[in-house]
Amino acid sequence: MDLNTIRLFFMWCSIINVGLFLVSFLVLAYAGGWVHRMHSRWFPMPRETFNVAVYAFLGAMKLFVLLANVVPYVVLEIIS
C-alpha cells in the first residue's frame, strides 16, 4: 500500500465520519425530544441525564473523529 492510498483512505474516513457527526448533532439538536422519548422506552432516564449522556457522546465522537481520522490525514497531506 503506497502513501497516496493511505492518504485517500484517511480523507474518505474523515469525510464520512464528519458527516455522521454532523447528522448526529443535527438530529439531537432538532429532534432531541423525539430521541429522548424513543430511548426512554428502553432505558428510563430523566431528560437531564439524557442531555448529559448525549453531550458526552458527541464530545467523545468529536475527539475520536479528530484524533483517529482528521489528524492522520492532515499529517499525510503535510508530508506528501
Task: Briefly summarize what is shown.
With 80 residues, the chain is an all-alpha fold. The chain has helices at residues 3-30, 32-42, 47-79.
Taken from the alpha-carbon principal axes, the silhouette is elongated
Helical content class: over 70%
Largest sheet: none
Query: What is the beta-strand fraction?
Result: under 5%
Quaternary state reads: single chain
Could you give the order of the helices and strands?
Answer: HHH
What class would the helix/strand composition place it in?
A: mainly alpha
Number of distinct beta strands: 0
Runs with pLDDT <50, length 5+? none
Instruction: Quickly count the domains.
Output: 1
Q: Radius of gyration, Cα only, in angstroms?
A: 17 Å
3D architecture notes:
- It is a single chain.
- With 80 residues, this protein is mainly α.
- It has one domain (3-79).
- The protein has helices at 3-30, 32-42, 47-79.
- Helix 1 packs antiparallel against helix 3.
- The longest helix is centred in the C-terminal third of the chain and has 33 residues, at 47-79.
- The radius of gyration is 17 Å and the shape is elongated.
Main attributes?
elongated, mainly alpha, 3 helices
Write the layout of secondary structure elements.
Elements (H helix, E strand, L loop, with lengths): L2 H28 L1 H11 L4 H33 L1
